[in-house]
Structure of Fatty acyl-CoA reductase:
Amino acid sequence: MGSFFLYSPPPPPPHSLLVRTNKDVKISSGGHRWPRRKKGCTTSSVVFCQGGGGKAIRSGVGSVFGGRTSALVTPTTATDQEQQISPATVMDASSLVLAVNGQPEIVVKDLVPYSGPTSSSLVETHDGIGIVRFLRGKGFFITGATGFLAKVLIEKIIRTMPDVGKIYLLIKAKDKDAAMARLKTEILNAELFKTLRQTYGKSFQTFMLSKLVPVVGDVCKSNLGLEQELADLIADDVDVIVNSAANTTFDERYDVAIDINTRGPSNLMSFAKKCQKLKLFLQVSTAYVNGQRQGKIMERAFGMGDCIARENNNSLVCEAASRFTLDIQDEVKMVMNSKEAFHPNEVAIKMRELGLERARKLGWQDTYVFTKAMGEMVIDNMRGEIPVVILRPSVIESTYKEPFPGWMEGNRMMDPIVLYYGKGQLTGFLVDPNGVLDVVPADMVVNATLAAIARHGMEQKPEINVYQIASSVVNPLIFKDLAKLLYEHYNSSPYVDSNGRPITVPLMKLFSSMDDFSEHLWRDVIQRNGLTAITSSDGKLSQRHEFICRKSVEQAKYLADIYEPYTFYGGRFDNSNGERLMELMSESEKRRFGFDVGSIDWRDYITNVHVPGLRRHVMKGRGTNNN
Ligand SMILES: NC(=O)c1ccc[n+]([C@@H]2O[C@H](COP(=O)([O-])OP(=O)(O)OC[C@H]3O[C@@H](n4cnc5c(N)ncnc54)[C@H](OP(=O)(O)O)[C@@H]3O)[C@@H](O)[C@H]2O)c1
């Protein structure tokens, strides 16, 4: 069992990477984070039923719920289905409910086997995808659990499906105790889990630890850094793998980013091949893997060696276009060789530059999205018979509704700018006023993840399916409108200065050129510091002020430069696959797992949900009244 492996000798001939094969391929050697369209209903999708319960739990941590079996149902024909269907035999996806005492209550009809599959619209209306039924009893292996998105995923799984199987969490740590400590402090202690904490009361931690199993590991390491016995145990128990681990720094060192974002998926896919009952591998990618593509961008998987610069230059004659070729193995070799060649003192900066240079030459905006795109390519190349979903969210921001509105972690993507603006430290930005910020709330991304897992995990077709979870086509948030919403928010709920006085902010000015933006920054910073000019008669004071002013201008320009590929982005992400997925959901599933980005009221979300969430959960209430 090989892997598309960096730094692992011996390499196969390079041409093997270009051949799409079901066999694994081995390869050698090897800041800053980041009105609804209706479509015809598709009837092609089939609602397969799959019993998931009754799985043997081998981790030694007992579930607070006794094991129970749910019947395995064999697929029947549509005719059989239509004859059999009756309200008594249709299992409603929302039938698992929490009783008043907080203990999950299994409704009797849950135990009634459901017969599927069929393309009958009758069944789709009643049963939908069967998300809860599919996930019941399933074992998960999730990476990136200490990160923002995976926490929201874990919370949702456990809150809505308390009889899920074990959820193994790959966590970087020096030993088991340290991994457990990270689980408790970084995950379970998060405010995100307050609903579950209220539901389970004193048994919260016991219950959570009966489901969540922290395992020490690292996606960059061979066999994921897992001890062999543990790796075997997980491989026997896992139905679904979700890879959410990533390095999301736009301008990360090339060696670091390629290791996590390209080699990581390769190592996980090698592990996936050892999982006997694996039903699905889901890779959390990003919509921005589409790099410098323009216009409406469809949900198409990358093939090995796809190169966006070549796509964008396809009018060039072959010879010229051949300058733009992507060979991942060569990229890895380049990283290795360059690393050796650079002086140790300059290796960090040079690796950063190399990542950006390679990304931009080959058609991506930065190292992050370039290495994530290569991660997708490697997965497609290695997947063989394993069903794969590539989930590409755009910019993930705070939760829309669940478990409560506005939960957020980390100061990412547009948020530093939103916060500087609110504090009166930034009154303008370099951005296309008519451009679009493609944002999706984290809980919608998670709902889409679960719906896609259930649908494709049930079907188990050896396919790769891509879902762009994005708003720019169906419900675009235009930058100049965003500026107005931020203005509204901060004028009704201003930050306060150190003297407790409200900070009033003007409407943010949007600049299309760096020169104009830079000029504005200087004017602004001079004015804010109460200076009429940088140089004054008092040499010392003037120098100090100039230093402060220059620093803050440079900082703002750096931010603007890093964000420019996003604030002037020319692509819009098609999300038809997600829309089709939602059409397959029952009404009950739409309520519990809906991710209709077209229905988001941006005014309400930005002013009442996201920015207040950011101020509360990221800024911890600092700068608001009484704090
Ligand atoms: N946030 C967004 O706006 C956004 C948008 C689109 C797509 N995405 C994608 O969504 C996924 C989750 O993003 P996020 O915002 O949750 O990221 P995040 O908060 O930065 O979390 C990244 C996670 O990856 C883990 N990780 C990093 N290197 C690892 C390694 N070598 N081995 C194992 N785990 C490792 C981190 O663990 P440590 O805590 O130990 O560092 C952390 O748990 C990523 O794949 C990202 O590309 C994010």
In short: Confidence is low (pLDDT under 50) at residues 1-125. The chain is about 40% helix and 10% strand. Residues 34, 143-150, 170, 172, 218-220, 244-248, 260, 284, 286, 372, 393, 395-396, 410, 412-413 surround NAP (CB under 6 Å).
